[in-house]
Amino acid sequence: MRTVEGKVVVLGSQGVGKTSLVVRYIGKMFSHHISPTIGASFFTCNINIDDTRVKLQVWDTAGQERFRSMVPMYYRNANAALLVFDITQYFTFNSIKKWVSELERNVDEPMVYCIVGNKTDLGTHRKVSREEAQQYANDIGGKYFESSALHDEGIEDVFVNTAMELISLSKDPLTRSLRIYDSVESTLRSPSLTHYDPNDSSSSEIDPAQNSKQCC
Amino acid sequence: MSDGTKASPGVGVIGCVSLKEDDIESMEIEDKKRKNDEEEDILLVPEWKEKRKHIFILSSAGKPIYSRHGSEDKLVTLFGVMQALVSFVQDSQDTIHSIQAGNVTIAFLTKGPIILVSVSRTGESVNNMKLQLLYVYNQVVSVLTLTQLTRVFEQRGNFDLRRLLAGSERLIDHLLNFTETQPGFLLGAVKCLPMASSTRDVISQTIINSCSKIKNLVFAILIADNKLITVVKMKKYNLHPADLHIIFNMVNSSESFKPAESWTPICLPTFDASAYMHGHVSYLSEDCEACLLLLSIDRDMFFNLSEAKQTIVDKLRRNNSLEAINEALHRPSICASDLNIPNVWHFLYKYNSVSQFWGPKLEAPYVKKEEQERLLHLYEKLHSTVHKSGRTLKLVFQQLQTETMLGWVTSGFELYVTFDPLVTKKSAINAINKLLNWMKKEEDRLFILNTSNF
Ligand SMILES: Nc1nc2c(ncn2[C@@H]2O[C@H](COP(=O)(O)OP(=O)(O)O)[C@@H](O)[C@H]2O)c(=O)[nH]1
Ligand SMILES: [Mg+2]
Questions:
Q1: ipTM above 0.85, yes or no
Q2: Spelled out in words, what is the top-level CATH class assigned to the domain B191-331?
Q3: Which CDD domains does this chain map to (chain A) (predicted)?
Q4: What CATH class has B336-446?
Q5: Position in ligand 1 atom list of the atom nearest CA A23
């Protein structure tokens, strides 16, 4: 089956819920006791969309100032950025903007931008309006999503959209760092991490020559 | 790696940390400040004043960095006073060590650009307070590296260090509780997970075999339940217990290591205070709660180490070591009463050459938290009595109100025993001989006596 393997970096201030989002999506759980990430954490997940498998390599960064100098090593060669802010804290929205300009300056390949306003369950304390965030996402050519890691709302959309955009990106001739190859269906994949493809065929042809690009 | 860690590529990365006024997180702190200004004077709040122990960190310019209880922001005046005290004494080419005021002891530790202060009503010794402050300092260095800590204050004397420590306060909080409940800090030693030495050897050998092709891997450390399972190291380096304590503290206070593989910069202050190492940190598997740290000086090693980790886990599963670790973790701990040595309530035994210790699980009369704390204080006093400098006291026997304490320091081991209060010297000595026999018999299981190198 056609497989697209991409690197996703999750950026945003400390405490906006980056780790909670990723753990909610990949680990299917929420912990109130999650401690601040130290450095960065690495997750992988597979999403099947039609006849394509998208393998995401997710780098969840810490968002603390002392790790600033390390962040480039996570966005270097990234194909998508999930830029997360907390809708109840305006400064976290501003910090997204700084990340975006840093990415625009330093990443030369096309990149998927996905802005995520998290903690919608705290809607009564909202400081960033949906319109403003949406407008900003439009301005930078990205998409805007809102989510609650606590209530498990809107997170699936974020990842599925990222996967779909990576598929489009894989058709863009400017994209060099996405890995695209054909793989034999593995029977070992975890069903909980597979979405959007109830009847995906496990008998696909192997054609290593087709569309194969090397990663970094 | 062949030419020392100072030239590691990791150093360069940290070298370019930029600290501009308008950096991203600064607004966060402003926000916090505004909130705090509105609150009342914390110095007048009785609950705050009556805390048994306060710990403060400030910059040498008097800027608040950390307070164990209450927000530093509300204590600006107090921090000013502490800074004034330190610099007043410094002006006369002297260093302030401690102040005694009634039942309150204040200890100071000035380290590089920061001042650490402990204010205690617990009756503990100044030395012990300073030891704790030193651990706190080590924790700060571990988070920032000494290079970074020094540089930010050189660049700007009134730098607000909380910006860089954001998210790490809990490491300090946790460390303080840790040092106040675990005897390992006092002893400068770590506890191992008891298991047959042959089982441990299989685990170490598995790690060695799986990592043989990886360059720049300095330490592999496997821990569970706050105890060491094994350490594999590059031959020319050693892992100091103080660094292991920092690692234990980090793993213990970070739930975030559980769901993923992490790539964590960590500075081991005794090993190399100037630079970060890069740690691949992960738990072995969902069915085995042991945490594996692979520490490299190379920041681009993540995927190599991730692969090595997978190999290690697969092999450990196949040779039944995961099961063995779980078994060791679930085996009931030994209590002093299991040893059947009359009069002995509890003891601590430190194996000097390997900086490891063992002590039985606390049991009656040390069940309540206050009683356990009291016992640790007794050990602290005993420890400082035997180690008092300028004396050649190697054996101490103290008959106290509620227990009898015996401390014995030799070149090979240190032994601290708690007896019932009425024990005679003769039966105490008898008991000690039995105890040492038992330790001799068990040492292969309780300690890691042979070193494993890559
Ligand atoms: N109410 C609410 N709290 C959340 C949500 N997501 C995360 N949190 C909390 O926000 C804090 C920081 O979360 P974390 O995932 O560590 O943030 P990170 O620093 O961006 O990785 C934690 O206490 C979480 O429990 C959410 O959707 N709603
Ligand atoms: Mg996080």
A1: no
A2: alpha beta
A3: Rab
A4: alpha beta
A5: 15
